[in-house]
Every structure is written in structure tokens, then in C-alpha cells.
Amino acid sequence: MEKELAKPYIIEKIWTKDFALICMANFFIFLGFQMTLPTIPLFVQQLGGSDQIIGVITGIFTFSALIFRPYAGHSLESKGRQFVYMLGLSIFVISVGSYAIIPSIAFLFMMRIVQGIGWGFSTTATGTIATDLIPPKRRGEGMGYFGLSGNLALAFGPALGLTLVGYISFPQLFLICSALGAVALILSSLIKYKKVEPPAHKSVNPRFDIFEKTAIQPAFLLFFITVTFGGLASFLPLYTAVKGISGIEMYFLIFAIFLMVSRTFAGKIYDVKGHIFVFLPGTALIFIAMLLLMWLPNSLILFIAAALYGLGFGSVQPALQAWAVEKAESNRKGMANATFFSFFDLGVGVGAITFGQVAYLFGYSYIYLGSAISVFLSMVLYVVLLIKAKKQVV
């Protein structure tokens, strides 16, 4: 009798050895990635690139990841989680390491495409692996914890990267980032992966099967939110430098701290009450943060914006990801994650390229006005979807 009572607790356990390993691997790959995020624009500047070129270099990475995510999603179901994840990590390690010998912007452009392929494969796989390991009834909470691994990297990565470039060369920095990816690769080899289950029925031709329809709504909402990330990651360090405002390293640290704080409770709220209690409050915080960045008179406002953006994004992103995979069939979880991250990439890429033009034509502050409008559009779309869903129930 006691053993029977203990079974539900064992089934509902989140923190297993494999879940801890995927979280650690995710931390190291994200740390390597986050260290390059604010430093690539500075590197492009050193190579003689303009704001427009910076936007293109950032955007081509995300568009490359976007294009290859559907292939990653299919491969997760046909070739297995381990093959896709370790392939993606290997490509990431090689591509980032190659930045150490980059002679020109043209070569950087090409290797950013390669890095995007590795990033698309690895991040699609890692989200699916985490989904496999988390009990369905605690998916929102579990994805929140999993997200903390990336958030910890975000807490240290950008600030560490910006600090290191003051003491070491860009080639040395990129070799360190590549080595962190290699650590993730080693950890990934220790995970016991879920075996691939054959689909219950014949799927659509892979050439035309590029998304999971049950994930479209949350993924489309995410697009409007991650547009803001393209403007932040690419241009905020340059924006604060032009305005003579110090503390950009602290911005990323504060953002990550509040991102982690939100992860501790937002997932639980999603599991108990659903996305309606998470999405609108979270996007409202992001909206306010963008308006503050548009204004940006001093470092204090910069830090307040970081806190609000961290709370908002940290609440919304894992809730939308849990929403994206919860209705997908077991053999379509990989494609659901691929769809979700494809729209994530699309938002970042569109934001980076579009805001590169905006910065060139109007100035950096208009980037954050555009970001606020994008977030507002996501809120309006969400309300429309809610109204439509209620009418269908009635």
C-alpha cells in the first residue's frame, strides 16, 4: 500500500539525473552564446561595419536557425534526440571557434550562417529533450526550471563577455566561448535519451511539413515579443555608449536576475490557472520597459527597464513554450518545439535587421518605440484569440 502511494510522487518528480544534465549542458551552451551576443556588434564595428551591417550580421544568424529548425524537428523524431543535439552542439563549437581566425566581415557573415544551423539544431533538441523529461502535469513548472539554466547563463554571459573584451582580444574570447560549447557537448553524451517512437499514422511529406499547427498561436505571439530582443541584443550597448550612460553590464545582470525570479513562480501559475494569468501581465511589463528605454535619461532608468523586461519576458516565454507543446501528439513534440523556436528566431531576426535600418535613419531611441508597438500588437492579438476561443466554446 505504501509503495502504491509513493508511485505518484516518483512519476511527478522533475529533478532527475538526466534533467539536471540537460540543464547543465544548456547552461554552458547558452553561456558561450550569451558572451558573443553583445560583443559581436563591437567586433563588427572593429572590422569596419556600420549599424546596418550589424543588423544584418545578427539577423542572418537567426534566419539561418529559422530555416533549419523544421529539419531539426523532423530529425528529432526520425534520427533521435541525441543525434540532433550533439550534431547541433558540434556545429556551434566549430563555427564560434572559427571567429578567432576571421579576416573579414564577409567570412564572419558566412560563419554566422553556419552557427545559426548549429544553434537551430541544438536549441530545438534541448527544448524537446527537456519536455521528454518533465512530467506532463508539471510542464509549466518544469520548463520554468529548465529556463533557469539559460537565464543563469544570461546573468553572467553578456557582462562577462563585455568585461573580457577589455582585457583580452576578440579571438581569445571566441575560443573561450567555443570551449564552453565543448563542455556542453561532453555533458550531453551522458544523458539517457528517450527512444524515438514511430508515428501512429503516416505523416505529411517532410518537404511540406514545416510547422506543428497546434503550436502556431503561442509561437506567433512570441514573434512580436522577440522582435524586442533583436533591438536589445544588437544595439543597446551602442545606444548607451552614444548617450554616455554607464552600466550596460549591470543591465544584463539585472535583467537575468529578474528573469530567474519570474521563473520560480510564473510556471506554477501557468500550470494552475493557465496562460491568461501570465501572458497579459508579462507583456504589460515588457511594454513599459520598452518605453523606458526609448526615454532613457540615466542609468537608474536603464536598470528599472532591465528589471521589468526580465520579469515580463521570464514569465511569458516559458508559458508560451509549455502552451506550444502541450497539445501536440507525442511524436510531434519535436516539431512543436521547432515551430516555437522558429518564430522566436524570426522575431529576433526581423527585429535586428529592421532596427538596424531604424537606427541608421532615425536614431537608436526609435528602436524601442518600435519594440513597444510590437509588444502592444501581441497583446491585442492575444485578446482577439481569447475572444475567438470563447465563441467556439459557446
Helix content: over 70%
Number of helices: 14
The average pLDDT is: 86
Poorly predicted runs:
1-10
The secondary structure category is: mainly alpha
Q: What CATH architecture would you give?
A: Up-down Bundle
* Strand fraction: under 5%
| CATH homologous superfamily caption | MFS general substrate transporter like domains
Computed over alpha carbons, the radius of gyration is 20 Å
| Number of domain modules | 1
Order of helices and strands: HHHHHHHHHHHHHH
Major beta sheet summary? none
Number of strands: 0
> In one word, what is the shape?
globular
Salient structural properties:
mainly alpha; 394 residues; 14 helices; disordered N terminus; Growth Hormone, Chain: A; single chain; globular
Structure overview:
The protein has one domain (13-192, 210-393): MFS general substrate transporter like domains (Growth Hormone, Chain: A, Up-down Bundle). The chain is globular and about 50 Å long. The N and C termini lie far apart (44 Å). The protein contains 14 helices and no strands. Mean pLDDT is 86; it is low at 1-10. It has 394 residues and is mainly α. Helix 4 (51-78) runs parallel beside helix 6 and helix 11 runs antiparallel to helix 12 (299-326).
